[in-house]
From TrEMBL:
Domain of life, per lineage: Bacteria
Cofactors that this protein relies on: Fe(2+)
Known EC number: 1.13.11.2
Signal peptide segment: none
Listed InterPro entries: Catechol_2-3_dOase, Glyas_Bleomycin-R_OHBP_Dase, Glyas_Fos-R_dOase_dom, GlyoxalaseI/FosfomycinResist, VOC_core, Xdiol_ring_cleave_dOase_1/2
PANTHER family documented for this protein: GLYOXALASE FAMILY PROTEIN, METAPYROCATECHASE
Protein name: Metapyrocatechase
Domain VOC: 11-123, 153-274
Gene Ontology molecular function: any one: ferrous iron binding
Family: Belongs to the extradiol ring-cleavage dioxygenase family.
Gene3D superfamilies: 2,3-Dihydroxybiphenyl 1,2-Dioxygenase, domain 1
Length: 324
């Protein structure tokens, strides 16, 4: 019997990263990627891309080491939030309610089986542009910034996990994510998986941690929509002394044009040059890459990814390859 689809989780709303170089990280996202700083509280800076409709989508928090603070997902309604919280609490991974933060109301916090912190929320603050940033393009929240090569919106987050399938099942069974694509080992376990609750190929990806660690971050991603912007931003990155890890190129999985760069705090950032493809089929069959097909799964065209791509994550662990 086919399981009925679940529509209680709507989208990825924001994420928080840790940085030991707070102001340098803020400068990177502001001056290279054209994002706006919209608030500060304590040791956290709140930022957004110009087509993000919510108050913020990125929080950078000062910390001794890089890594993931939390992921925020938005429910489809206040009632959906309560339904999902009831199910999460049955798993034993619940942490509890918080009253809110800059840009959103009360939220329920929990972890994945691997220890990544997630909060689920409903009430959000929509961005209201100041007068000098309002645009006659009424379906855009603000003017396009005139610095750097501005990213348009957040896209996805990629997590490292000690057990890929255990985390995939949690996202599917408890939160209603759909498994869109996966890379499959000989024993039919998932080496990596791409999941979404939206029409995107992935809102969250899970990759096996090569070091066997738990709860680490592989990368966050923002979206351009135009592959040319990857070449444009590459010029800025190189001339400003930032390290491009890989790209521009095109993935087989997701079909997206990509570029990977390390922000000053040490976290990996992916930039999407186009949306790849979107999914509208309600009975989508998971695409599985294995055997001879693996050759084109990661790189469809462009240079190969360095070994560090598959081993480096944040926080950095003892014995890990130094970041490229």
């Amino acid at each position: 019997m086919t399981k009925e689809p679940m529509f209680d989780v709507a989208q990825l709303a924001h994420f928080e990263i840790y940085s030991p170089k707070l102001e340098e990280s803020v400068e990177f996202f502001k001056n290279i990627l054209g994002m706006d700083e919209v608030g500060r509280r304590g040791n956290s800076v709140y930022m957004r891309a110009y087509e993000d409709h919510y108050h913020n989508t990125l929080i950078i928090t000062e910390n001794d080491e890089a890594g993931l603070g939390h992921i925020a997902l938005r429910a489809t309604s206040a009632q959906a939030l309560e339904r999902r919280v009831a199910e999460i609490e049955k798993t034993g991974y619940g942490i509890g309610w918080i009253e809110g933060d800059v840009g959103h109301g009360r939220a329920y916090q929990f972890t994945t089986p691997d220890g990544h912190k997630i909060e689920l929320l409903w009430d959000v603050e929509y961005y209201e542009a100041p007068e000098d940033q309002k645009t006659p393009l009424l379906n855009r929240p603000q003017k396009r910034p005139n610095r750097g090569v501005p990213v348009r919106r957040l896209d996805h987050i990629n997590l490292l996990a000690s057990d890929t399938d255990k985390n995939v099942e949690f996202l599917k069974e408890v939160l209603g994510f759909n498994l869109r694509e996966r890379i499959v080992a000989d024993d039919d376990s998932s080496i990596a998986a791409w999941l979404s609750v939206s029409n995107l190929v992935h809102d969250i990806a899970i990759m096996g941690d090569a070091l066997g660690e738990s709860g680490r971050l592989h990368h966050i991603c923002y979206w351009y929509g135009f592959p040319q912007h990857l070449s444009d931003v590459a010029d800025l990155l190189i001339e400003a002394g930032y390290n491009i890890e890989a790209g521009p190129g095109k993935h087989g999985v997701t079909q997206a044009a990509f570029l990977y760069v390390m922000e000053p705090g040490g976290n990996r950032v992916e930039l999407f040059g186009d949306p790849g493809y979107q999914i509208f089929d309600p009975s989508w069959r998971t695409v599985e890459w294995k055997g001879k097909d693996l050759e084109k799964s990661i790189i469809w065209h462009g240079s190969t990814l360095p070994q560090e791509f598959f081993q480096y994550g944040t926080p950095i662990k003892s014995g890990e390859l130094v970041k490229p």
